[in-house]
C-alpha cells in the first residue's frame, strides 16, 4: 500500500463518522461513560472532508472541542447514537464507527438523585446490554456501502479484531492496542493494524491520529473505487 495524498478522491461521497463515548444516565446527576476523547474520530472526519467528501460527524460527549467546520450531530447515549447512525447511514456511502459505545447501561434511570443510606456500605448497579450498532447497520447495509469499525483491545489484538470483523460483517476494522500508554484512548498518537474482510493486514508505526486518519481514508477510498 502507498498512502499518498489522493486529492478529491471522495468527492460527492457521503461519509458518516462517529466519535467520542456514549454517556449512560443513572440519575439526574450521574452517568457511566469511558475515556474516549473524540480525537481519532475527529481526525477521520477531517481527513474525509479533505478528500472531498460530504461529512456528517456524530459526536457523543467528546472530551475535545468539536470541530466547527463539519456538519455535526450531537448525541448522548448508545440508544440515541443507534437511532442517529441508522438515519444517517441510509443515504451514506461510507460509515466509520470510531465512537466508544457503552456495552451496558443502567437498567433503570432514577428520576431523583439516588441517596446513600446509613446502613449500606456497598451498592450494586444492575446494567442491561445496549444494542450493537454495527450489527444493526450490517442488517440494513446495501451493496456498495462500506462499513469500518474499530477494535480496542488490551490483549489478543488480531484474534479479537478478526472475530469482530466477521460477527459485525465489516469491510474493514482498525485494530487498536489500548494497553500501551501514549497511544489510543485520549492520546495524540496511535498505532493500529488495518484488517480487511479478505484477511489482508497493514500495521502502522506509532504516529499522530491525523496521519492514521489520512491512511484510513486513503485505504477506504481505494477499496471503495475498486
Ligand atoms: N460498537 C457498536 N455498538 C456497540 C458496541 C460497539 O457499534 N454496542 C462498535 C464500536 O464503535 C467499534 C466496534 O463496534 O467500532 C468494536 O467495539 P468494541 O468495544 O471493541 O467491541 P465489542 O463488540 O463491544 O466487544 P467487547 O467490548 O466485548 O470487546
Ligand atoms: Ca465494547
Keywords:
single chain, about 230 residues, alpha/beta, 8-stranded mixed beta sheet, two-stranded antiparallel sheet, 5 helices, 14 strands, globular, binds cytidine-5'-triphosphate, binds calcium ion, magnesium, FMN binding, multifunctional enzyme, lyase, flavoprotein
Low-confidence stretches: none
Number of helices: 5
Shape: globular
Our measurement of the CA-to-CA distance between the termini, rounded to an integer number of angstroms, reads: 14 Å
Write the layout of secondary structure elements.
Elements: E1 14-20, E2 24-27, E3 30-32, H1 39-50, E4 54-60, E5 71-75, H2 78-89, E6 94-97, E7 104-106, E8 127-129, H3 133-140, E9 146-153, H4 157-167, E10 172-177, E11 189-190, E12 192-196, E13 201-203, E14 207-208, H5 209-225
Parallel strand pairs: 1-4, 1-6, 4-5, 6-9, 9-10
Antiparallel strand pairs: 2-3, 7-8, 10-12, 11-14, 12-13
Helix pairs in contact: 1-5, 2-3
Bound molecules: cytidine-5'-triphosphate and calcium ion.
